[in-house]
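Retro notes (design track)

What went well: tokenization of the new backbones is finally stable.
What didn't: we kept losing track of which sequence belonged to which structure.
Fix going forward: every design gets posted as structure first, then sequence, in one message. First example under the new rule, 683 residues:
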């Protein structure tokens, strides 16, 4: 048998559910609480900082959650539930005052509210759309015509007909009729007297208007009126009498989707959906088009792109565009561009130049990417989940996108896991595409990424807690000293400052601001990085405590508390590789040892589970550091861990594990072993 050594260049390939001999060299079986980064490698995700307990009961199950960013220092999360809107400030979790001026009835839904609303924002306003409300016009006005003339030249003098309305019939066709009204000086175009000119605001999307910091008013909008023409020359928007499915902004217009129609309002007049003249059509008039298809179509979402607006239905996709690039009533066109199945409740998201959408089977969901091309060209599609078949459950109900960090996340409100897909592209080369997952402390009700800041609401012990963290914020030095332990550089969850610590019966009780969870491992760390062992938890006097093992009094220390967050990487079986994508799975291979190159890291553990056994053997829990200062956490800038194996390549499973509160960064690995070809000749 020959000695052999091969290298794993990085761990940035992410998760693959393919057979191990078909995986790419840098792919693994599972990544839990990891974050692949092209600069520093596969790192442990940052810990989630506890902000506040925002809800103390379970009445928010299946609420519709949304995020609103007003400025760099003012962001909010909100929930629509029980005919009310609730909001909280992200910075401190404080409840926001929402005054329900008019419109509580508009929020009424039957069943699950999570999928019954759609929310978009514009400056100081948040537009809330209820998908179950049927829109309507207001009651018709009273009044009558003063007369009908064949042309404008036949009108009587305006000075003697103040406020009188005349119809200009022109020809026998109704399409060229219009109406004029005298102001005592001249005749001006107006509407027919006995028709409805207003949209019933109680049936249309309402708005949340920011009136001050931590103060909003929920109210009905004031919608534009039909000031000219009649129902033939200036018709009702096609959504009247129907429900609205989606709202969006494009070309400075507010747009709605209703059944198979797409309706765009007047530019620079957000809430107006009527033409300005019944005599002539102008470019700023509303755009109201129907998707032509041989199959039934209900449009459910829209994504504005450079080429136009991509429209999604459950089984077909369309492009709304114009040859000039400007959408006008005369030039706007809709054409079919593809026929993929799309989940109607989970709206597609845009990540840079790619639109991501999903479809579901009975037990899992598939993830696709769409990249639009030039005018007249069909879009390009890629199956983003082809390496992770059946990895993402069909219970996911939301997608979040972070264009800055090039990732998407998929989660459902009934689970703790969120599944990510991250890419890194240089020019035309895609250098990284990785699937991985995070496991949060509770079921994820809401998750959002905004300018490297993660904001999440999780269900925790019968209530809801607000958590945040910062991405791309690894420690910049190899040591963390006393009084320099910011929460953003800690790697456990529910991170909070402890207060009200007491020393009772020779035990230090560390008070925690959140609920106790027996399924999680409590954690206490001091400013200098000293980890204090927690022997038990208790509730006393209405407060929750972690009880520190031993009899030392730690009440004078500044302590941070939380729950351990395990980082796991499950490695695949190793095979000899004879070229890109070529593995020798017929050879006899004994793995002698593995060497892991580690970046800025704390402790790591390596677990080996022999084939057919349920127990994992701890093969290493080593911190290699040349020196460290007193009262400082040793974080070596780089290290090489050598792990003995001495097993056949397919007779064991190896897991890299860490639950310490400090950074972990996997760079690369190398394995050494004995290799026999079994006398097969390989070319």
């Amino acid at each position: 048998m020959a000695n052999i050594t091969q290298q794993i260049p990085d761990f940035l390939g992410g998760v693959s559910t393919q057979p191990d001999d078909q995986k790419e060299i840098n792919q693994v079986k599972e990544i839990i609480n990891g974050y692949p980064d092209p600069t520093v490698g596969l790192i442990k995700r940052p810990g989630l900082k506890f902000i506040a307990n925002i809800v103390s009961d379970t009445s928010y199950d299946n609420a519709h959650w949304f995020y609103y960013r007003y400025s760099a220092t003012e962001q909010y999360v909100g929930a629509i539930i029980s005919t009310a809107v609730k909001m909280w400030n992200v910075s401190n979790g404080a409840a926001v005052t929402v005054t329900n001026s008019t419109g509580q009835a508009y929020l009424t839904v039957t069943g699950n509210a999570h999928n019954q609303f759609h929310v978009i924002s514009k400056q100081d306003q948040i537009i809330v759309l209820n998908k179950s409300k049927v829109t309507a016009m207001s009651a018709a006005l009273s009044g009558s015509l003063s007369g009908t003339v064949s042309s404008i030249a036949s009108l009587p003098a305006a000075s003697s007909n103040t406020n009188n309305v005349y119809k200009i019939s022109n020809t026998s066709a109704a399409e060229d009729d219009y109406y004029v009204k005298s102001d005592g000086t001249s005749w001006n175009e107006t509407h027919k007297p006995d028709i409805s000119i207003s949209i019933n605001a109680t049936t249309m999307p309402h708005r949340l208007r920011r009136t001050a910091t931590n103060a909003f008013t929920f109210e009905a909008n004031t919608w534009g009126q039909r000031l000219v023409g009649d129902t033939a020359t200036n018709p009702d928007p096609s959504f009247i009498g129907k429900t609205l499915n989606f709202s969006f902004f494009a070309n400075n217009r507010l747009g709605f989707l209703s059944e198979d129609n797409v309706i765009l309002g007047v530019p620079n007049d957000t809430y107006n959906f009527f033409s300005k003249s019944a005599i002539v059509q102008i470019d700023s008039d509303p755009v109201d088009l129907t998707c032509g298809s041989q199959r039934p179509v209900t449009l459910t979402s829209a994504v504005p792109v450079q080429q136009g607006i991509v429209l999604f239905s459950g089984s077909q996709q369309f492009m709304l565009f114009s040859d000039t690039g400007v959408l006008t009533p005369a030039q706007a066109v809709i054409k079919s561009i593809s026929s993929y199945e799309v989940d109607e409740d989970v709206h597609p998201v845009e990540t840079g130049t790619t639109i991501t959408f999903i479809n579901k089977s009975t037990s899992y969901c598939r993830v696709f990417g769409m990249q639009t091309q030039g005018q007249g060209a069909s879009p390009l599609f890629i199956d983003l989940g082809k390496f992770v078949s059946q990895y993402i459950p069909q219970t996911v109900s939301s997608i979040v996108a972070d264009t800055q960090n090039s990732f998407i996340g998929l989660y459902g409100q009934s689970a703790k896991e969120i599944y990510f897909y991250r890419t890194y592209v240089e020019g035309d080369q895609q250098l990284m595409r990785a699937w991985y997952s995070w496991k949060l402390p509770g079921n994820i009700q809401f998750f959002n990424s905004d300018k490297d800041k993660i904001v999440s609401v999780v269900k925790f012990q019968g209530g809801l807690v607000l958590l945040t963290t910062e991405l791309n914020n690894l420690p910049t030095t190899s040591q963390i000293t006393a009084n320099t332990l910011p929460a953003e550089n800690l790697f456990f969850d529910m991170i909070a400052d402890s207060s009200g610590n007491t020393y009772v019966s020779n035990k230090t009780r560390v008070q925690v601001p959140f609920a106790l969870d027996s399924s999680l491992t409590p954690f206490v760390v001091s400013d200098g990085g000293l980890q204090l062992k927690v022997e038990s938890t208790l509730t006393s006097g209405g407060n929750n405590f972690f009880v520190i093992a031993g009899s030392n009094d730690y009440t004078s220390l500044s302590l941070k508390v939380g729950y351990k967050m395990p980082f796991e990487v499950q490695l695949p079986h190793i095979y000899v590789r004879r070229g890109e994508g070529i593995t020798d799975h017929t050879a006899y291979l004994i793995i002698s040892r593995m060497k892991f190159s580690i970046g800025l890291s704390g402790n790591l553990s390596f677990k080996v589970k022999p084939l057919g056994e349920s127990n994992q053997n701890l093969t290493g829990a080593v911190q290699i550091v040349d020196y460290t200062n007193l009262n400082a956490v040793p974080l070596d800038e780089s290290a090489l861990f050598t792990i003995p194996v001495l097993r056949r390549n397919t007779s064991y499973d190896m897991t890299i594990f860490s639950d310490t509160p400090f950074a972990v960064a996997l760079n690369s690995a190398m394995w050494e072993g004995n290799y026999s070809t079994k006398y097969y000749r390989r070319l």
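Added context from the reviewer: DSSP finds no helices and 55 strands in the chain.
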